[in-house]
Protein: Lipoprotein
Amino acid sequence: MQRMIHGALSALCVIFLAGALCGCLDHEQTVVFNNDGSVIVSFLYIFPENQRQTLENAQAVIDQWQGQGDQDNRVPGINSFLNEEAVKSYFNARADIELRHYKQTTDNGFCRVQIIVLGRDAASAINSGIFGAFQLKQENGLTTFSAELPSTPARWDQQRLAQLRTLLANTQLKLSVTTPAPIRHCSRDRHDKNSATWSFTAQPSTDRPDSADLFAPPPAMSVSW
Structure:
């Protein structure tokens, strides 16, 4: 989960590592704002079942990058979403947030992990950072949700980017937002009346017109209602 992946490495770097190690990692996050002021955030991860151990071992690589003894900056664990008890502990630590659903299934060689979380107070839950680099604010009669993806590290040259694009060819990221009222403003031109979706891929092409470049994400994704 995005905020279970923080510290010295950016969330994007950890996703790159996971995708490179297991060859394929799809991550979909859905944010649904309700009329009663609550929010439901869902996470969906899909990866090859035969790469489970590789994905779980990614933490050891992260530890080596950061230094085993630096506990303040240690990434808590890329494999946290595979551990139901860790997920419960992470979300249920806050009184206003509740893990509503956790399920792992395997079908046709792929593992799916679905997590559904309720935030009783949307503004408090979103602005706490527990779900990711998100913000929710009210201004001039509008409620605005915004999200950011970290930029690609400047030290990565074109050769490194080309290698990563090949490694992450099958990795997909998606963020979907549903609003309780019609959308008034949105940073994405194409959206529905009450929902907007941003998709990212490491290999953008004309075959994927709705997917932006994972290595060059927009400065911010926002939707107001």
About this structure: The chain has a mean pLDDT of 75.
